């Protein structure tokens, strides 16, 4: 694997990618829920449906992070996710790192974005998901 060159992505670039990915996830959830609503005579809700949507959310991010190093939103905003561990610095992340990153992202959102505002405090522009998973989000200019 060839390491990806770049500089740490800033907060606005990351937020732009998050907004784009949010729209994609909502579309994916609509495609999932439409057949459930169409085929069901009862309300489509409860723990099973919420669990399905949560697993889809994780699968979306984990697949793109591990397979490509970018979600579609990250691709548009020209940011790339790489490992920051000593053994794989600058290369694709592992499934374990993707899981840790997802947990870190949940914590960052559940604290009303404090985990992402951490980028403004950290000298290396790292958010909580970056710190927890030992990854870096790089801006890769054309």
Task: Write a structural description.
The structure is a single chain. With 142 residues, the chain is mainly α. The chain has one domain. The protein is built from 6 helices and 3 strands. A 3-stranded antiparallel sheet has the order 1-3-2.
Summarize the structure.
This protein is mainly alpha-helical and 142 residues long. It has helices spanning 11-39, 47-67, 72-76, 95-110, 114-117, 128-133, and strands at residues 7-8, 79-83, 135-139.
What key phrases describe this protein's structure?
3 strands, single chain, 8% strand, 6 helices, elongated, three-stranded antiparallel β-sheet, 142 residues
**Quaternary organisation of the protein chains:** single chain
Number of domains: 1
Number of helices, counting only DSSP H or I runs of 4 residues or more: 6
Strand content: 5-15%
- Average pLDDT, rounded to a whole number, is 93
Q: How helix-rich are the residues, as a percent range?
A: 55-70%
Distance between the termini: 20 Å
The chain-level structural class is mainly alpha
Shape: elongated
* Annotation, overall tally of beta strands: 3
Main beta sheet strand tally, sense and closure: 3 strands, antiparallel
Low-confidence stretches: none
In order across it, which strands form the biggest sheet? 1-3-2
SSE pattern, N- to C-terminal: EHHHEHHHE
Radius of gyration: 16 Å
List the helices and strands and how they pair.
Elements: E1 7-8, H1 11-39, H2 47-67, H3 72-76, E2 79-83, H4 95-110, H5 114-117, H6 128-133, E3 135-139
Antiparallel strand pairs: 1-3, 2-3
Helix pairs in contact: 1-2, 2-4
